[in-house]
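Sequence and fold
=================
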Amino acid sequence: MPGTRGFSAAAGTVAAGIAAAAGELAAAALSPSLSPVSAVGSVVVDAVPAPVKDWAIAVFGTSDKTALLAGMLLIILGLGALCGLLEARRPPWGSAVLAGFGILGAAAVLSRAQFSPLALLPPLIAGLAGVLVLRGLTARIRRYGQSSGTEAGARRRDVLRAVGGGAAVAAVGGGLAGAARSSQVAVDDLRANLQLPAPVQPAAAIPAGADLGVPGAEPLITPNPDFYRIDTALRVPLINPETWRLRVTGLVDREVEISYADLLAKPLQESWVTLACVSNEVGGSLIGNARWLGWPVRILLAEAGVQPGADMVLSRSEDGWTATTPLEALTDARDSLLAVAMNGEPLPPEHGFPVRLVVPGLYGYVSATKWVSELKVSRFADETSYWTDRGWSERGPVKLSSRIDTPARGAKVAEGRTTVAGVAWAQHTGISAVQVRVDDGDWQDTRLAAGISADTWRQFAADVDLLPGDHTLTVRAVDARGNVQDEDVRPVVPDGATGLHTIRVSAG
């Protein structure tokens, strides 16, 4: 059909867009926690090699999921265009391929931990909608291609109206799906109306001098909206706290199950804890400090009765993600919590509502399970988890590290006296000193802010003299045991990056 290739490609794109919108709208009604797009995206996330994930986090940071979803949309539309061309030349193969995408979506849904029978319907609905739209548009295009003269003009306008209308339907449907799935009306209402109990053990008071107040430095307490988010969930799981349950299983004397109401009735405590992601590069921002409210995990495990020989707890998220945490980190005196609140409010959905794990001193990939649904007491020799299956180490103690926040990398500053400030951390060990260096000069002690606890970062500041020209500023920390920060440069894989944070500035 001469002159119709562009229309055929557009028809396929529109059909794919309507299919995706239909699937997401159906999922909003039938399967709020699992949609075709999120299921396929999660399969992709699980399948790609760890170095690719690390690259994505390094490039996109906390926007990695947005970038993935945008990339998936472009791929869906591009494949739709190919289906349109195939349908025009070799019918019904274009429709068959489009239907196949629906079947693949159903297979992806079947593979997810949130699967339910109703979750199978959205991808099938998507495939059916895409096929019907593609066949209808292709028939119009074929009639146009077979026409001539005045009739051709009318047929062309008919195709333009149909394709344009279909594109509008896809856009509106996608917007409605996004609004429906992001609103989380029921869960948000429940969360907004929650009355958190007062802690039996309030958080330690922030000591005077803990916040140096240096402009440009990271706040001592990270606001919830600014707290980093790194996980594998393309869609935040929608969990009704009234139906949430946590099971303790495995090598225990008795299995235990608790509800959200049970948890809130426990003697809760507050703790200041700094969390860090193992993917945080030296000087990176994947770290934050917050006040957490929760119940000590060690008490729950004691109620279950841990059996001899156990050395690990496999925690499972509602979306199927798993972490393997050393048993001693959950049973010793540290403030490892089943957390229900963050900085005085119920956990934000993206940070684990209704309940998550908070474990001081360990990177999140082996401890910070959000939307937690099971704690299985086990052994490292018997169980692996999401990231350890992908080449990361089974134990992930947080590395001693520090970061310059101000001046910023590449900043132009006035010559003479300049304030260098930032944060340093050695969770569950504590910081005893921080030093900075200008170019290859001597290390200079900084003013170290008062510490809230050994589980939180500490601010530092120092005044340095800068002559006109370019300079290198470097920072290093010393922990409470006298260990000096490792200056050897190592990547984040397999257990966290090392090296000293160094920036270049220009004085003049």
Summary: The mean pLDDT is 93.
